Structures are given as C-alpha cells and as structure tokens.
Amino acid sequence: MKPRLVTNEEVVALAFADGEYIPPTAVADADIAAAEERYLIPVIGRTLYEAVAGGAYAELREEYAAPTVALFTRCMMQPALDVRTCSFGTTVPKSSFFGAAAGEQLHTLRRTIRAKARTLLRRMSDHLEAHADDYPEYRSEDNILNRCMTDGNIIQIR
C-alpha cells in the first residue's frame, strides 16, 4: 500500500474535538486516500505529495497538509458516521443517552467542517505560493486553486 500523509489515528486526533470519540478503526484507508486524491493532490501536485508522504518537509506536513487532509477525510466519512447500513437496512445510531441529530443540524455540521477544511487548504496553498523556492517539487501552475475557485455554488475560472 502506498504511504498516506496521515494515519487513521491522526485523522481522529486532528479532525475530531475532545469528547467526540471515534475509534481510529472507523477511519478507512479509502477515506484518507479519497481525501488526498480529491482535495490535496490537485493543489500541491503529485510529486510534492509523494515527497511529503515519503517523509520530506515535516513542517509542511505537520502545519499544513495533515490538518487539511484530516478535515477533508472527516468530510468524506461524516455521512457514514451519521447513518449505518446493516442487515436491517439503513439506520441511525440510537442509545438511551443520545438521540440522532436532525437533518438541519447534520447539514450545519457538514458545512462547518467543509468550510474549515477549505480554509486550511487555501492557507496551505498560500504558504506554498509564498515559499515556492523551499519546495522544488511544487509547481504553481499545477495548483488548481490558482486556476479555479468555488465560492458557494459559483465556479470561477481564472
């Protein structure tokens, strides 16, 4: 298996607040891989991604890439945490202590997580642009945020 930028344990530590207990086994490697492919690699490029995943640029990984990937991983897995599929079909978690969140609450949570993740992605992109000489594998012209941006439901091509 290819190295990932973050581990399952790091996703839990970086993307979930204290009191939100999620076992690391709930984070699938496929969730991490999908978040990296969909959100991170189009910004930093595959060459820089492979360098960081291989152990280079620890500060870039710790301060920028890992928190970003962790939050986008949570974005991708949150719907599966909110509902369960089992032999009885699709269900919502229920216990004697907690009730399932309402649809609007789930929507607000997902929107907030995505906004944080996008903010961190932009922060990392800005850092790479400002320090491009420190990362020879980075190519500004490959950064999708330099060519295309989404504001709400509006796509802006530069």
* Unreliable spans: none
Main beta-sheet strand count, sense and barrel state: 2 strands, antiparallel
N to C succession of SSEs = HHHHEEHEE
Mean pLDDT: 84
Strand order of the largest sheet: 1-2
Strand-pairing-aware structural class? mainly alpha
Shape: globular
- Work out the count of structural domains: 1
The helix tally amounts to 5
The percent of residues in helical segments reads: 40-55%
Radius of gyration: 17 Å
Q: How many beta-strand segments?
A: 4
Question: What percentage of the residues does DSSP assign to strands (E)?
Answer: 5-15%
Query: Separation of termini?
Result: 36 Å
Précis, in short:
The protein is mostly helical. The chain contains 5 helices and 4 strands; from the N terminus they run ααααββαββ.
List the helices and strands and how they pair.
Layout: H1 8-15, H2 29-44, H3 46-53, H4 58-82, E1 84-86, E2 89-91, H5 103-130, E3 148-151, E4 154-157
Antiparallel strand pairs: 1-2, 3-4
Overall description:
With 158 residues, the chain is mainly α. It has one domain. It is built from five helices and four strands, in the order H-H-H-H-E-E-H-E-E. It has helices at residues 8-15, 29-44, 46-53, 58-82, 103-130; strands at 84-86, 89-91, 148-151, 154-157. It has a two-stranded antiparallel sheet with strand order 1-2. A two-stranded antiparallel sheet has the order 3-4. Helix 2 (29-44) packs across helix 4 (58-82) and helix 4 runs antiparallel to helix 5 (103-130).
